[in-house]
């Protein structure tokens, strides 16, 4: 070991605002109490500038952790250890210690080895106020109370099978059942894919993934982390019956130009961040896809083209106000089974979002006002008339969002609302026997003017140190040509903190949303297609243990009750036959039901050394469905087991990262057999369901990567192998059988029907990434 250039860090620290919930004049900044001398292995390179920039989080107890570091990884590891061994005087507000984040520039100055590093006060610079880096008591209490499941960008990019896309980690999470192997959407605690809200920087994403291979429409480099709320999140997240997956924007230092370029087997992408005057910055990012090379190599009959873009600008208007612009969009043009006209499926998808924001602060208040413009286009054409219900949308939307947040040490409240006018037609076709039917009232959907609006209030209370309470309620209304649906969504949550050992939490919430398209597509995933609301009653309770070596262990139990849920069941034929195999009716896509079970999560952050993410779900889903005759004159309720009643789901990720840049990781995904079968009308006129569980499905993904870095630059080359075991998923029950029940889809076969398996979805993804 040797001294770092025979020098010790001499700190120059500046504190900036992060969420703007409190003003700098009300705060007493943190101070350095003790800072050990840094020792590093021989041969470690020191930046020519002799400066390393950090983002350091200082806890109320005076401990600290480095959240971001702009130096080479080995040097950052050494500095991480020094900061962890340091002691700080925490920031205070009205004499009460509060958590804080500070931007730290470590300047390396030559000194004699026996000299001690002086304590340096942290100074607030008024001109450096920036909403990206602040004390945020509201955010801190929110995090302690809501108990979301969180993954950060650096860790996500080391998980094989995700293509490095943060939102694709949804399928790793507990309480999530994948729709099918290779599909990026899932059922969250029993709610269908369209019931979960996906957000970036507070805005809902109309199309989360591109077609075919399924790359995300938001560039990973602009996302700091993703959080999944599986049940009863805060009231500001509304209009859903499932979970909420939210991506927070990444804070990029604005000391110089930063960027990233990446070439993958399926696309090319880039990101560029440019500093602006007044402590501002502009970020551009985007991707262009060419998956046809890969699809052709795999002999897939498909033509897929896509692109996407993102833009974010943020500048200070004064010491107490900022102006922001957020924009993103994308386009897909895909055709599957093009060589077979009777099986052709074409998807034309496009969306754009542009929002301007004003952020102002006054004492304990933060006020935000925004104006949004959006455009959505979808065109779904299924010539087979069996897979998807044909639909289309051409929607322009305009509207403001307003909210105000009041913050005090033990109490925070946020009041807000939004309203949007939607202009343009929607085309839908009611096809009750399609594999993925969709709700549709053609006359209702064709209306060209709609209004969607809502108001909410969220409150966090910390009456004592060991208890956090959260209450909220929101009201929403959907108006289409004089037809109005409205509802309220209350929710409450309590979190008990048992020192630093564990958190015990319980939450309840009520969710509502309109009858929308079966899968989230632009203009179809959040716009009513027929009158009526879907409703969810969500309850969960659990405990999260904080173990040594940064391990966390969590167990949750949940029960969700659904009413008029538009369920999606692609593995059970919705057509009902008689005992003789003649068509008699269909299963209505609206049903009541419940999902319940338990989840377990073991997690260690992705960093140097071994890291892990282990999620297990034991779940049950039951529905009370309605069988309807084709002339809709006769109906009958019956107990129905959907295909997503998958009892066991396990996802395990293990990664090892060496200090010299080598990264090896593996992921195993396994689930028990889902149900397949049919529904028929027996000779007594009663509806019956035949259920056959398919075999377990297990898939293994792997990745090996190497990173090398110079001051201010980093490069990475990686080989990711998706489905290295070439596992195949059961697609359907075969009718090629000697048993008439399997042929005519009626009655109970004497023995299980033979299975038809999908083609194995597997491919290598070679990528090269350069960061500066």
Number of domains: 2
Please mark out the parts with pLDDT under 50 across 5 or more consecutive residues, or reply none.
1-25, 109-141
Rg estimate, integer Å: 27 Å
> Which CATH-level-2 architecture of the largest domain?
Beta Barrel
Shape: globular
Beta-strand percentage range: over 45%
Number of strands: 49
Percent helix:
under 10%
Q: Strand count, sense and closure of the main sheet?
A: 22 strands, antiparallel, barrel
What count of helical segments does DSSP give? 6
User: What oligomerization state is this entry in?
Assistant: single chain
CATH level 1 name of the largest domain = Mainly Beta
CATH topology of the largest domain: Maltoporin, Chain A
Tell me about this structure.
- The protein has a 22-stranded antiparallel barrel. The chain has a five-stranded mixed sheet with strand order 7-6-11-2-12, covered by helices on one side.
- It is mainly β and 772 residues long.
- The chain starts with a strand and ends with a strand.
- It is built from six helices and 49 strands.
- The radius of gyration is 27 Å and the shape is globular.
- It folds into two domains: 2-135, no CATH class; 145-771, Maltoporin, Chain A (Beta Barrel).
